[in-house]
């Protein structure tokens, strides 16, 4: 029988076959992050170690920048609540329903007027943590609540290293000495003999009702501290037990109430496992026992720390219940929405930047136009809801459309409902993985504040089959905190410098100087050598930072000589620039006006502003297909290259009959389609994708009243977003066809025009394509009713182009574009950087020609019909931004879908300015297109795809 992480990958590939790997819109359901091995990817060597099948590696960045600060933040709230609870104050934040008949907080404790003077409110509280994905593409450690494995097991499993092997006993002794020394001020000499210092242990026993709340197996060393019933309690100063206070022997209860015996942990801190309504709810709602603790912690979405989803109660007034019941709480019936299109950077706290709160019932269920607005679909799929009688109303992640409709009806009928936002736990294969980590903290007697013990027991992880209610049949793993010196040194640096050092450390060698420079996010474009020289002045320990700088210098390698370009003879020409401009202009300012998948929206403001009332996306797609067929015919490749479409229907859980495009899909009048051009290489079993999206966004300034809008949903012209990329694919086709005819493509090149990237479709085409790639059922429809099965072709890499023709105006930010690789796409990013270096070297020669020598920098043209004057070729600065880079825009594009599925992907995008005019507004016109910049970036993208497709399969890492 397999054990450890190999058991999690048993049955691979379990997702093969039609319908077995659905990918839903992230605005409708934020899925679990797939770790360890993604469906289209290889095993992650950092997470798992073949020599340690029971280990789960946790990086220094996770522990130092997320988990450590997050645990301290949670500890402060928990200990403060315990202090108020023990003092009988109303602001402890724990509802009456949780305290009623609770064996961990019986009347004897609740009636005590004041806690003992030396009560330190020690918590050894097992948290259920997992990693979830948010709408900014960040995979974050997230609090699910209290451990569903019970109050004790996480603590005791900390002292094992694998199912059948205990950790050294000294680990347990050392922790207990740190705890007693810190919380109670005992000197080290007094703790050499823990038993002599008065420490005893009492097992939980068989008094707990929950079937999975077992302590055993216990580490053997704790048996030496077990309380002897015949021993006088006067010898016992500290009793370590997870038994409910009401189940303790009466002498122990009396000694604690009298202040002569300290219970570890503080008995009130375990009350979350005694909340009877939630124990009953668990019969209908899996892991409901996590919820009582989650209620106590405030929502937290800021990048540094542990993510805490919002939970609480909402009230929908009825004549019989006009006001909420104070027995249940906390009452949190408003919610701040977040979404990936918000003009907030990934390293910023989005909640701090918005004051808008929506009514919770609307956030969860309303599909009405005024509630959805431009970016806010119902969020019920990422929520669990229960009634005031603690009966399940909705388990969102596992709900069908019918169950969603019934839950919406229940809320409309009114009453009081509990809820929590629930983002599914990280998954490996078919298993959900949860870390049960004890939080060790106490009230510091000197400062009066909560103090977290940083070197506390680490607990263990459980992996259960997703949806399996049997929590007792889990695969167990143990956390291994990585303590690599260079990465620990990086964590001490300021955030920007830490991100820079991390990128350099995590890039596989050889690390060329050009790649290292492109990875740096350095203000003022400091050189690599300048950045390394300055590194030693950062952080709390400069000497440690200097050692890090020396190590990074030693990893650098000189750049290899530049090879000859494959495509710049065709693209580094004025004729290419003119065609590029005219192609964008025709797409943006021609007859294609309604280019959003939801068009035409049927509400009154939109209908009043429409110039015509049909969706032009189909006509635009026909135009693109015709252009490609012309290119194929002109190259004499009609019997070898394929030009077709990938048809599918737009389906959602909620209904949007006010969206004309959605309604036409539902009633079968139209279908959605990706467009595909397959250009043959020598090896037809592999392909490199070059993709765009050909739909456009709704204009915020035509909708938002704050920007002068009137509520109309009108599709933007889309010159930059995203006809700048569509034009690049159209111009790329003849170049790749010529390479194919000459036999210079080692594998196929697929040009893919994806549909529905923008809201409300939300990466619709990318989701459909990736689903087909993973499930292995990809077929392209061809003219004349023919089709071709492409499921046997393996995608070696994908290059997604999105917004590539706007250059920033500030000198420090100009002439920059981003190469944003997804997970496992380093080699693709290196090809993009190499193509950039070849381009930049070429500009020096090309600009010495007579025409370019006399030209200056490019200028924009306010008129689409007027091509800007000839300008000098721009040398562009490539900024390589891997997923850890806070400025990577991969999440805001179709590229995120490819990366999540495991398809190696790189995003080409301009130096994305989220606050500029011309993004999702009426200014996305040719007046904001920089021809010299866009044509250069299009040429670099074409060269990159050609280079990736001309290499044999062993060329990539």
Walk me through what this model shows.
This protein has 957 residues and is an alpha/beta fold. The chain has four domains: 54-169 and 210-219 and 255-309 and 423-483, no CATH class; 310-421, no CATH class; 495-557, no CATH class; 568-949, Aminopeptidase, CATH 3.40.630. Helices cover 31% and strands 17% of the residues. It is built from 29 helices and 31 strands. α19 crosses α29 and α25 runs parallel beside α28 (895-901). The mean pLDDT is 94.
Mean pLDDT comes to 94
* Amino- and carboxy-terminal Cα gap: 33 Å
Report the strand count. 31
Q: Any idea how many domains? A: 4
Assembly status: single chain
**The CATH topology of the largest domain, please?**
Aminopeptidase
CATH superfamily of the largest domain: Zn peptidases
CATH structural architecture of the largest domain: 3-Layer(aba) Sandwich
Percent strand equals 15-25%
**CATH class identity of the largest domain:** Alpha Beta
Question: How much helicity do the residues have?
Answer: 25-40%
> Which regions contain 5 or more consecutive residues with pLDDT less than 50?
none
SS content category: alpha/beta
Number of helices: 29
- What is the C-alpha radius of gyration, as a whole number of Å? 30 Å
Q: For the report, how would you describe the main beta sheet?
A: 8 strands, mixed
Shape: globular
Key phrases:
single chain; 957 residues; alpha/beta; 31 strands
């Amino acid at each position: 029988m397999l054990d450890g992480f190999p058991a999690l990958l048993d049955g691979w590939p379990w997702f093969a076959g039609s319908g077995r790997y659905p990918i839903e819109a992230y605005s409708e359901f934020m899925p679990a992050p797939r770790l360890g091995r993604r469906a289209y990817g290889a095993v992650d060597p950092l997470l798992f170690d073949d020599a340690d099948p029971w280990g789960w590696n946790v990086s220094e960045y996770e522990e130092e920048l997320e988990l450590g600060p997050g645990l301290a933040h949670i500890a402060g709230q928990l200990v403060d609540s315990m202090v108020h609870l023990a003092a009988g104050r109303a602001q402890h934040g724990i509802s009456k329903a949780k305290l009623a008949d609770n064996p961990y907080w019986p009347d004897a404790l609740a009636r005590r007027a004041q806690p003992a003077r030396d009560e330190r409110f020690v918590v050894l509280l097992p948290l259920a943590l997992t990693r979830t994905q948010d709408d900014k593409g960040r995979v974050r450690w997230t609090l699910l609540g209290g451990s569903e494995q019970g109050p004790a097991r996480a603590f005791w499993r900390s002292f094992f290293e694998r199912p059948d092997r205990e950790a050294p006993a000294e680990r347990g002794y050392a922790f207990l000495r740190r705890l007693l020394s810190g919380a109670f001020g005992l000197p080290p000499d007094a703790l050499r003999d823990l038993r002599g210092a008065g420490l005893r242990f009492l097992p939980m026993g068989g008094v707990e009702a929950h079937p999975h709340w077992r302590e055993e197996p216990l580490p053997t060393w704790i048996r030496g501290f077990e309380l002897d019933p015949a021993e006088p309690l006067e010898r016992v100063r500290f009793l370590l037990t997870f038994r409910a206070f009401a189940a303790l022997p009466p002498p122990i209860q009396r000694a604690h109430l009298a202040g002569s015996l300290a219970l570890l942990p503080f008995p009130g801190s375990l009350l979350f496992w005694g909340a009877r309504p939630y124990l009953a709810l668990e019969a209908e709602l899996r892991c409901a026992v996590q919820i009582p603790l989650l209620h106590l912690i405030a929502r937290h979405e800021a990048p540094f720390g542990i993510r805490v989803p919002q939970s609480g109660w909402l009230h929908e007034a009825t004549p019989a219940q006009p006001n909420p019941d104070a027995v249940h709480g906390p009452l949190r019936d408003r919610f701040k929405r977040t979404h990936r299109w918000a003009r907030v950077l990934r390293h910023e706290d989005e909640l701090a930047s918005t004051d808008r709160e929506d009514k919770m019932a609307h956030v969860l269920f309303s599909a009405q136009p005024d509630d959805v607005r431009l970016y806010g679909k119902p969020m019920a799929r990422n929520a669990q809801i229960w009634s005031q009688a603690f009966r399940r109303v909705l388990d969102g992640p596992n709900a069908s459309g019918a169950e969603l409709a019934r839950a919406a009806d229940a809320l409309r009928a009114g009453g009081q409902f509990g809820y929590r936002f629930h983002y599914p736990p990280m998954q490996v294969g078919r298993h959900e993985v949860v870390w049960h980590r004890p939080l060790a903290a106490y009230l510091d007697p000197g400062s009066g504040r909560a103090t977290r013990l940083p070197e506390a027991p680490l607990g263990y992880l459980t992996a259960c089959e997703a949806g399996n209610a049997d929590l007792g049949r889990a695969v167990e793993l143990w956390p291994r905190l990585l303590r690599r010196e260079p990465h620990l040194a990086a964590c001490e640096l300021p955030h920007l410098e830490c991100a820079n050092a991390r990128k350099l450390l995590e890039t596989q060698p050889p690390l060329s100087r050009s790649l290292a420079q492109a990875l740096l996010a350095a203000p003022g474009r400091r050189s690599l050598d300048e950045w390394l020289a300055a590194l030693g002045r950062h952080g709390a320990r400069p000497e440690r930072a200097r050692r890090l700088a020396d190590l990074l210098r030693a990893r650098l390698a000189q750049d290899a000589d530049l090879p000859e370009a494959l495509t710049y003879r065709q693209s580094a020409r004025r004729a290419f620039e003119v065609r590029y401009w005219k192609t964008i202009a025709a797409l943006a300012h021609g007859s294609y006006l309604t280019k959003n998948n939801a068009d035409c929206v049927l509400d009154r403001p939109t209908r009043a502003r429409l110039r015509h009332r049909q969706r032009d996306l189909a006509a635009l797609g026909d135009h693109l297909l015709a252009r490609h067929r012309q290119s194929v015919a002109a190259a004499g490749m009609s019997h070898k290259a394929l030009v077709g479409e990938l048809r599918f229907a737009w389906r959602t859980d909620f209904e949007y009959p006010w969206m004309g495009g959605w309604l036409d899909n539902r009633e079968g009048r139209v279908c959605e389609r990706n467009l595909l051009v397959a250009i043959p290489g020598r090896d037809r079993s592999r392909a490199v994708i070059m993709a765009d999206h050909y739909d456009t966004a709704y204009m915020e300034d035509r909708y938002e009243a704050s920007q002068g809008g009137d509520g109309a949903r009108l599709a933007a012209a889309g010159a930059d977003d995203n006809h700048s990329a569509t034009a690049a694919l159209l111009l790329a086709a003849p170049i790749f066809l010529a390479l194919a005819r000459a036999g210079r493509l080692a594998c196929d090149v697929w040009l893919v025009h994806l549909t529905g990237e923008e809201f409300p479709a939300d990466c619709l085409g990318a989701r459909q394509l990736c689903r087909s790639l993973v499930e292995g059922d990809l077929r392209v429809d061809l003219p004349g009713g023919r089709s071709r099965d492409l499921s046997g072709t393996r995608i070696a890499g994908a290059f997604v182009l999105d917004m590539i023709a706007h250059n920033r105006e500030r000198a420090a930010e100009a002439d920059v574009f981003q190469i944003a690789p997804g997970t496992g796409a380093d080699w693709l990013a290196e090809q993009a950087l190499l193509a950039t270096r070849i381009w930049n070297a070429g500009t020096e020669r090309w600009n010495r020609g007579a025409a370019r020598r006399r030209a200056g920098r490019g200028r924009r043209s306010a008129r689409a019909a007027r091509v800007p004057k000839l300008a000098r070729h721009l040398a562009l600065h490539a900024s390589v931004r891997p997923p850890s880079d806070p400025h990577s825009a991969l999440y805001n594009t179709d590229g995120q879908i490819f990366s999540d599925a495991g398809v190696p992907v790189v995003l080409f995008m301009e130096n994305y300015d989220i606050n500029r005019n011309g993004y999702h507004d009426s200014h996305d016109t040719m007046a904001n297109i920089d021809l010299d910049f866009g044509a250069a970036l299009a040429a670099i993208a074409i060269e990159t795809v050609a280079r990736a497709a001309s290499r044999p399969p062993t060329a990539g890492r």
